[in-house]
Amino acid sequence: MIPKNREGNAATLALQEQITKTQKTGPEKHRFASIIIERQDFEPPLSSQSEAERHKMENQKARRAAMSKARNSLLFTTLGPSTSWVLWLDSDIIETPATLIQDLAAHNKDIIVPNCFQRYTDSKSKDVKERAYDFNSWQDSDAARKLGEGMGPDDILLEGYAEMATYRTLMAYMYEEGADINTEVPLDGVGGTALLVKAEVHRDGAMFPPFPFYHLIETEGFARMAKRLGRAATGLPNYKV
Asked: What residue spans carry the Basic and acidic residues bias annotation (predicted)?
């Protein structure tokens, strides 16, 4: 989904050019059955899309509620009767294995999520390094549950902030260099940087709540909703995107 602003207009033009190349002049085996471009029809919650602004704790509820609306709009307008899988891939993901979809689908799980890392340049050594990025894939903790019990109905639990210590087990820190990329772990919450979902999970009613659902929102709320419907989430801690 492309934002409703000047940058979104430029992105739409660039995307349309690439679609034309792929669908009309590219090899037939590389063409998609159909492509739909969705434009955001509501105002963005933040005036700036800088990484620092996007990740401020005080912006999370409004930001992720807007992301939920965008995800649900995409889902409800494109999910067809012949759809088997739904791949959610954030636009700022720039590097994945070429076989990402096949690799994830091979596990045949209702919901499956790889581990998202970020490349960055070390300020001292100037070397390019990697660090954990998506902290929304986790296994729940007693501490988080107790925090939730003391919250108001409109409050949400957030991960990755020192001000809200949940002591959950984060998949981001389960990565082991050289370990089996097919290692699976059960999850209670999932991030959405890269996420593969069986279409039937969405058809059963699991969506991305733009409101607090058991004190969770967006993808984490989706995982809780799916769990209530009897659908489990699985993580691949050693499979990086």
From this structure: 51-61
